[in-house]
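Risk register update: the risk of archive-format incompatibility is retired. Evidence:
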Amino acid sequence: MIIKVEKAEYRGGHRVWLHFSDGSEGEVDLAAELWGEVFEPLKDPARFRAFKLDGTITWEHGADFAPEFLHDLMRRQTVGPDVASDAPV
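Archived output:
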């Protein structure tokens, strides 16, 4: 199944609530992911919140995150890395 972001809502700072095509939903905090030339401008919350929805979240200057990455990050941030990766406990 190809995962897509179907809905996105800015939640303050560098947090976004996402709803995915598989029915899962939750909030991601992208603050720790904003490094490198294309993501540096998004450290400004005003620029960050100006994302558009196009199967994922994208920004006017060309930055985006793969929907699969966002889906995995949401799971890791919601339930923790061990549960999200299906690792034995």
